[in-house]
Each structure stands twice: as structure tokens, then as C-alpha cells.
Design a protein that fits this description.
InterPro entries: CBM6, Cellulose-bd_IV, Galactose-bd-like_sf, Glyco_hydro_43, Glyco_hydro_beta-prop_sf, Glycosyl_Hydrlase_43_Enz
Shape: elongated
CATH architecture of the largest domain: 5 Propeller
Family: Belongs to the glycosyl hydrolase 43 family.
Number of helices: 1
CATH superfamily of the largest domain: Glycosyl hydrolase domain, family 43
Number of domains: 2
GO molecular function, one term: carbohydrate binding
Number of strands: 30
Protein name: Family 43 glycosylhydrolase
Bound molecules: beta-L-arabinofuranose
Pfam family, one: CBM_6
Strand content: 35-45%
CATH topology of the largest domain: Tachylectin-2, Chain A
């Protein structure tokens, strides 16, 4: 009994120890995360990402992907995320070369009360061909403990496994190796039930990888990163059946404007809303093999087409007014007088700040839940060398003023508390604006 409850006790402990993450993008700011596979199990969202670490001499290949293990994260509201810790590591999978640091993009699926975690890696024994193989680890809970199978799946050579269970109960495994491949899985979820097929009718020029299959209203969506130009963008094709033939339909997300070479995603419905989980190198702008997972809403057109997703920093969900509101994960930023910067470029995990240069600078953060009970004060973490006045409003340029805060000059960060001049119950956008000509930096805002 205690063993069954252990994952929940551990997740509670993780929460107490401060492993909870935030709602904004990137979703996880305590480590690098990539290749998010999101699943809804028992009303909770679980994300199984890759875990990028920095290679050092003797540990992985410097300048390349370096991944030794997998964590799982979960959330009941897409806002508060819990890190449940390591679930599979390269040192404890019998078939994986333990110093290969190649635990690339995984997936996880539930069947008959078990959780099947699929992951690619480099095998110890390469007599069966060079390159990556795909293995499975099985657990009784989404958070593990996961027990790896002794051998990789026979007949699968490649990376980026993705599993789909059709309405008739047939399971399929998709993976990539330059092109995309698929095969039926046996009911035991551990072996292929059909010979692999190459998924044709897709673009033949440019790498394709990271397949993610889902079904909606009888349409099977094969979604995948593809290098159509120089870097990956997310595309999709549809079919009336899981193995095709497919019709290429379009682009889900354009290439990253800042040049992150990979993108890798999953698409999940949670409480009647569809979501796109994907990644970007937010916490490592100079090195795109250290990535961070993101989350934005996804919408369908009436004919089933996927509306293109424009990446946001704000992400999804509401932020409670009593939490620290990281306005640098903004919804809108003034075109002049406002920029975002790391708090400490030497340690990006500390997060970002909003720099308001003068009275033209403002930042808007949508979706703050103020609640019903009147809040009385606001605290800002701010820094200004010359002294400045900061105004807080709700609902855009003409919204009611909540507070006008005078920030004394100083070289250090200060937490300044001020009374609220008004209170708006309910959910509102929050605007933070400079009212003086002197520069002021804002780390966060919190109401009480
Ligand atoms: O994370 C390593 C590899 O980069 C993944 O397997 C690919 O999909 C790409 O995201």
C-alpha cells in the first residue's frame, strides 16, 4: 500500500521542496527540457520531455545533444507543474550504452492499467545495425517506478517513438529515421505486430522527425517537424486511417525566428481545449541543444484544418494575483521603451526582468485572477538607479489605475509595497507602465 502511494508522497515532497514550476513559457525553469510528450492520465496532464544537459569532456559529445535520463512533470491545471524526478536513466537500462548520453525524445501511453514509456537510445550491442534503437519501460503509475525491458523493440531502428491507440484498440508505433515509419503493436505493447512501413506522400526533401499521431472527428493527424528550409518547423498531414495514405495539409508552427534548429511537439486535448506542447531554447539563446518546453493553445478550423500556432511567452492558464506575476512573460509589450532581459545572463535559470526605459514603456500580462475578495496592496520587485514611478492598471491603456508606486533610487533590487487605489474583482489583464523618464527594471508583481 505504502509502495503504491510512494509516487504521490514523493510528488507532495517535491512540491514542498519547491519543485513546482510556473505556467508561463518556458514551462520548466529548473532544468533544460525538450521534446515534450504530453498525456492526460486520470484527469491530470503528464509531460514526458527529454532532459538536455551540457556535455563536458568525458561526458557526452561537447557541442551536441547530451541526455542521460528522463524526468516526468505533471499538472492538474496547466499552471502549477510538479517535477516527479528521474523515471528512467541510461545507467539502468540493460540494452543502453551507459555513457552514450543519447536518451532522446520519448513518449508514454496508458493501456490496461499500465504505463508504457517508449524511448530511443544508443544500444550497447551494435551487431544488429548501427544507430538508435527504441525501448520500453513499464510502470503501474504515470510517475513510475518504470521497469525497462531487457532488450529494445525488435525491428525498430530510429528515434522519436510515438504511440497511438485507435478507437478499435489497435496500437501503432511511429518513429523516425530521416523519414517517418510506422507499424502496428501487439496487445502487449512491447513487440511489433506488422512490418514497418514508410509513411509516404510526405515531403521527400528535408529531414522529418518527431512524429506525433492523434485522431479527431475521424481524421488521423500525422504531425511532424520538417526542415523545409533551414531549420525545423511543425507540419501536418491527415488521413482517414492511421497508416495513411496521407495528404499534406500545412504548417502548425513556423521556424523559430531566432534560429533554434529543432522543434518537437505533442498535441493534447485537456478539458475541451487542444494544446500544443513544443520546445525552444529560451534558457540558452546561444546554444540550441539546451532547450526548454513550452505550451500554447491550439485551435481547429471548421473543416478540421489546424490553425497556425504563434508562439507566446505568456503560455496558457490564469495566474492568481497573490502569486508572483512574472510580467516579463508578457502578452503585449510596448513597441518602444520596453525590453526583456535575463536577471543574470550568467545564470538564465534565475529568469527574466522587464526593462522600462522611459514613460513610453509598458508591459501587459493577460489573465490575472484577482478573485472576489478585495485585495489591498501590491508589492513590486524593482530596481531603478535614478528613482521612478510605476503605474499598475487593469485592462489596457484606459483601464482603472490599481496603484501608482514611487520607487526610490538605488543600485539593488527592492521590494516596494504600496496600497491599492482600486480593486477590480474577477480576471483582468495587468498593465505595468513607467510614468517617469528614468529607466526602471521590474522583476515581478504580487498582490495581497
Ligand atoms: O532531442 C534530440 C532530438 O532533437 C530529438 O529526438 C529530435 O526530435 C530533436 O528534437
Amino acid at each position: 500500500m505504502l509502495l503504491r502511494k510512494l509516487p504521490y508522497l514523493l510528488s507532495g515532497l517535491a512540491l514542498l521542496l519547491g519543485a513546482a514550476a510556473k505556467a508561463q513559457n518556458p514551462l520548466i525553469t529548473t532544468q533544460f527540457t525538450a521534446d515534450p510528450s504530453a498525456r492526460v492520465f486520470n484527469g491530470r496532464v503528464y509531460v514526458y520531455p527529454s532532459h538536455d544537459i551540457l556535455a563536458t569532456p568525458g561526458r557526452g559529445r561537447v557541442g551536441w545533444f547530451c541526455m542521460a535520463d528522463y524526468h516526468v512533470f505533471s499538472s492538474a491545471n496547466l499552471t502549477d507543474w510538479t517535477d516527479h524526478g528521474v523515471i528512467v536513466t541510461q545507467n539502468q537500462v540493460p540494452w543502453v550504452k551507459p555513457d552514450s548520453y543519447s536518451m532522446w525524445a520519448p513518449d508514454c501511453i496508458a493501456r490496461n492499467g499500465k504505463y508504457y514509456f517508449y524511448f530511443p537510445s544508443t544500444p550497447r550491442d551494435t551487431t544488429d545495425g548501427k544507430g538508435f534503437r527504441v525501448g520500453v519501460a513499464v510502470a503501474d503509475q504515470p510517475t513510475g517506478p518504470f521497469v525497462p525491458q531487457p532488450l529494445p523493440i525488435r525491428g525498430v531502428h530510429g528515434i522519436d517513438p510515438n504511440v497511438f491507440i485507435d478507437r478499435d484498440g489497435q496500437a501503432y508505433l511511429y518513429w523516425s529515421q530521416g523519414h517517418l515509419y510506422a507499424a502496428k503493436l501487439q496487445p502487449n505493447m512491447l513487440e511489433l505486430a506488422s512490418a514497418p512501413v514508410t509513411l509516404g506522400e510526405l515531403p521527400t526533401k528535408g529531414l522529418k522527425e518527431g512524429p506525433y499521431m492523434f485522431e479527431r472527428k475521424g481524421i488521423y493527424y500525422l504531425t511532424y517537424p520538417h526542415v523545409a528550409n533551414k531549420t525545423e518547423r511543425l507540419e501536418y498531414a491527415t488521413s482517414p486511417s492511421p497508416l495513411g495514405p496521407f495528404t499534406v495539409r500545412g504548417v502548425i508552427m513556423d521556424e523559430s525566428p531566432t534560429g533554434c534548429w529543432t522543434n518537437h511537439h505533442s498535441i493534447t486535448q485537456f478539458r475541451n481545449q487542444w494544446y500544443l506542447f513544443y520546445h525552444h531554447n529560451d534558457l540558452s539563446p546561444q546554444f540550441d541543444k539546451s532547450r526548454s518546453i513550452r505550451l500554447d493553445s491550439l485551435f481547429f478550423e471548421p473543416d478540421g484544418a489546424i490553425r497556425k500556432v504563434v508562439p507566446t511567452l505568456r503560455g496558457v492558464g490564469l495566474t492568481a494575483a497573490r502569486q508572483k506575476i512574472q510580467v516579463d512573460r508578457y502578452s503585449r509589450l510596448s513597441s518602444r521603451g520596453a525590453t526583456i532581459a535575463f536577471l543574470d545572463p550568467a545564470n538564465p535559470f534565475l529568469g527574466w526582468q522587464t526593462l522600462l526605459a522611459d514613460s513610453q514603456g509598458w508591459v501587459q500580462y493577460n489573465g490575472v485572477a484577482f478573485g472576489k475578495q478585495a485585495l489591498k496592496a501590491v508589492t513590486l520587485r524593482v530596481r531603478t538607479a535614478a528613482g521612478a514611478t510605476v503605474q499598475l492598471r487593469t485592462d489596457g491603456a484606459t483601464g482603472p489605475v490599481l496603484a501608482q508606486v514611487a520607487v526610490p533610487k538605488g543600485s539593488e533590487w527592492q521590494e516596494i509595497k504600496a496600497p491599492l487605489a482600486s480593486f477590480q474583482p474577477g480576471t483582468h489583464a495587468l498593465v505595468v507602465a513607467a510614468k517617469t523618464s528614468a529607466p526602471v527594471a521590474v522583476d515581478w508583481v504580487r498582490f495581497e
